[in-house]
Design a protein that fits this description.
The chain is mainly beta. The chain has a 5-stranded antiparallel sheet with strand order 8-1-4-7-9. Strands 2-3 form a two-stranded antiparallel ribbon. The chain has 1 helix and 9 strands, in the order βββββββαββ. The chain has one domain (3-99): 10 Kd Chaperonin, Protein Cpn10, Chain O, CATH 2.30.33.40.
Length: 100
Protein backbone atom coordinates (compact mmCIF):
# COMPACT_ATOMS: atom_id res chain seq x y z
CA UNK A 1 0.00 0.00 0.00
CA UNK A 2 1.29 3.46 -0.89
CA UNK A 3 0.73 6.65 1.11
CA UNK A 4 -0.45 8.63 -1.93
CA UNK A 5 -3.28 6.14 -2.55
CA UNK A 6 -4.46 6.05 1.10
CA UNK A 7 -7.59 8.07 1.99
CA UNK A 8 -9.09 8.04 5.51
CA UNK A 9 -12.87 7.78 5.70
CA UNK A 10 -15.41 9.77 7.72
CA UNK A 11 -13.85 11.37 10.81
CA UNK A 12 -10.51 9.57 10.69
CA UNK A 13 -7.13 11.32 10.58
CA UNK A 14 -3.79 9.85 9.53
CA UNK A 15 -0.99 11.28 11.69
CA UNK A 16 2.74 10.92 12.09
CA UNK A 17 3.62 11.11 15.80
CA UNK A 18 6.75 13.09 16.52
CA UNK A 19 9.35 11.85 18.99
CA UNK A 20 9.24 13.76 22.26
CA UNK A 21 12.64 15.34 22.92
CA UNK A 22 13.70 16.98 26.17
CA UNK A 23 17.19 18.45 26.31
CA UNK A 24 18.26 16.42 23.29
CA UNK A 25 17.04 13.11 24.76
CA UNK A 26 14.27 11.15 23.05
CA UNK A 27 11.70 10.09 25.63
CA UNK A 28 9.87 6.78 25.22
CA UNK A 29 6.08 6.74 25.06
CA UNK A 30 5.35 6.35 28.78
CA UNK A 31 2.88 7.74 31.27
CA UNK A 32 5.53 10.36 32.13
CA UNK A 33 4.77 11.94 28.74
CA UNK A 34 1.02 12.68 28.89
CA UNK A 35 0.69 13.75 25.25
CA UNK A 36 2.37 13.47 21.87
CA UNK A 37 2.76 16.02 19.14
CA UNK A 38 1.80 14.79 15.69
CA UNK A 39 1.60 16.07 12.14
CA UNK A 40 -1.67 15.57 10.26
CA UNK A 41 -0.88 13.74 7.02
CA UNK A 42 -4.35 13.06 5.61
CA UNK A 43 -7.94 13.68 6.75
CA UNK A 44 -11.29 12.07 6.05
CA UNK A 45 -14.31 13.94 4.71
CA UNK A 46 -15.96 14.49 8.11
CA UNK A 47 -18.99 13.05 9.90
CA UNK A 48 -22.63 13.40 9.00
CA UNK A 49 -25.04 14.72 11.62
CA UNK A 50 -28.48 13.20 12.19
CA UNK A 51 -30.05 15.87 9.95
CA UNK A 52 -27.73 14.88 7.08
CA UNK A 53 -25.44 17.91 7.29
CA UNK A 54 -21.70 17.31 6.99
CA UNK A 55 -19.67 18.25 10.06
CA UNK A 56 -16.32 19.32 8.59
CA UNK A 57 -13.01 18.11 9.97
CA UNK A 58 -11.46 20.33 12.68
CA UNK A 59 -7.95 19.84 11.25
CA UNK A 60 -6.27 19.95 7.85
CA UNK A 61 -3.22 18.34 6.30
CA UNK A 62 -0.01 19.79 7.69
CA UNK A 63 -1.46 20.86 11.06
CA UNK A 64 0.60 20.14 14.17
CA UNK A 65 -1.68 18.61 16.80
CA UNK A 66 -1.58 17.32 20.36
CA UNK A 67 -2.92 13.84 21.14
CA UNK A 68 -2.88 11.88 24.42
CA UNK A 69 -0.09 9.29 24.74
CA UNK A 70 -2.67 6.60 25.46
CA UNK A 71 -3.92 6.96 21.88
CA UNK A 72 -0.60 5.74 20.48
CA UNK A 73 -0.67 2.76 22.84
CA UNK A 74 -4.11 1.70 21.61
CA UNK A 75 -3.63 2.12 17.85
CA UNK A 76 -1.83 -0.18 15.45
CA UNK A 77 0.95 1.46 13.46
CA UNK A 78 0.62 1.75 9.69
CA UNK A 79 3.63 1.45 7.37
CA UNK A 80 3.52 2.38 3.69
CA UNK A 81 5.63 0.95 0.88
CA UNK A 82 8.83 2.91 0.32
CA UNK A 83 8.43 4.95 3.53
CA UNK A 84 10.22 4.15 6.78
CA UNK A 85 7.98 6.39 8.94
CA UNK A 86 5.28 5.01 11.23
CA UNK A 87 1.77 6.47 10.95
CA UNK A 88 -1.39 6.11 13.04
CA UNK A 89 -5.06 6.37 12.06
CA UNK A 90 -7.04 8.11 14.80
CA UNK A 91 -10.49 9.65 15.24
CA UNK A 92 -10.74 13.44 15.09
CA UNK A 93 -12.27 13.43 18.60
CA UNK A 94 -8.94 12.16 19.97
CA UNK A 95 -7.11 15.33 18.89
CA UNK A 96 -6.85 17.63 21.90
CA UNK A 97 -5.47 20.80 20.28
CA UNK A 98 -3.93 22.33 17.17
CA UNK A 99 -0.48 23.76 17.90
CA UNK A 100 0.40 26.96 16.06
Amino acid sequence: MKLDTFKPLRNLVLVHIEEVKVGGLILPNTDAVPYNEATVIKVGTGSYLADGKLLPMPVKEGDKVMIPSVIKKGVLPIKFDGDDKEYHLIADKDIQAVIS
